[in-house]
Amino acid sequence: MENKTNRYDLIMTVAIFALLGVGTYFILSQDFSGPKVGRQEVAPVGLEIMKKAATHEGVVTQTKEYLVETVFQDDGLRIYLYDLEAKPLSLDAARGTARVEFPESDRKAAEMKLALKDEALQGNADLGKVKETGALATLLLSSLPGKEEPEIELRVPLPKAADLEEKKAPSTEQKIPPESP
Question: Which of 36, 88, 89, 146 is deepest in the core (most CB within 10 A)?
Answer without folding.
Answer: 89
